[in-house]
Amino acid sequence: MTSLTDKHQRLKDLVATYPSAAIAFSGGVDSTFLLAVAFDLLGDKVAAVTGRSLSFPARELNAAKAFATERGVRHYLVDSEELDLPGFDHNPPNRCYLCKKELFGKIKALAKEKKLAVVMEASNVDDEGDYRPGLTALAELEIVSPLRAARLTKDEIRALSKDLSLPTWDKPSFACLASRFPYGEEITPERLSLLDQAEQFLLDLGLRQARARLHEKATLVRIETDEAGLAIIFKDSNRLKIHEFLKSLGFTYVAVDLLGYRTGSMNATLPKA
Length: 273
What we know:
Order of helices and strands: HEHEHEHEHHHHEEHHE
Radius of gyration: 19 Å
CATH superfamily of the largest domain: HUPs
CATH class of the largest domain: Alpha Beta
Low-confidence stretches: none
CATH topology of the largest domain: Rossmann fold
Largest sheet: 4 strands, parallel
Helix content: 40-55%
Mean pLDDT: 95
Structural class: alpha/beta
């Protein structure tokens, strides 16, 4: 079995083979770790690139900006509005493919303009175990995925991030707000805003891991959180506060998922094949 030290070294060896790189940077656990490793190896030959859209909350964008500024990394923003893509708003099963193809096409164009040799992104080995059509788009665009190539898992990336004193080592996982919709449910700017407000309210209440998933044409919102989050929800008057606030956003029903938070829960509606 390959040790974590060996995987880390393998990652550094892979990144070091390139003279320069644009790192697709969301500010999450994986992309922050990849950016830190690449910047340590390549210095000012590295630039971070973040996509800006309605499905990417301002809190996440601001965190990405702050990290890049603090580390002295060149940071570019590209506007990537998924809702302008034909068919995206109908939320088809290949939604993630459409999004990644458009976003990484723009990042690749920016990298060429800035004379950066390659575009790197931060998917990990765990992403191979779920339905991830976006990985197909990455392959088609020849985007480099060093964390997967080094066979690093999410937990290993967190452990290495802690060793590197990165502030994101224990940051809750995040996916774009479009992932909160069942396939076939219409995605609109208004609905994205409602879910953003719902999740921000839950975070302000003290939950660290929270998803507000939309159902039944926006009449029902289903909350996913971890064990600590469940305890907060059912503490004192929090349950009623949450219900009242989400109802004020226009939801008729507010539900809490008994299985708690899990990635890709909307994929449960897809055919097993």
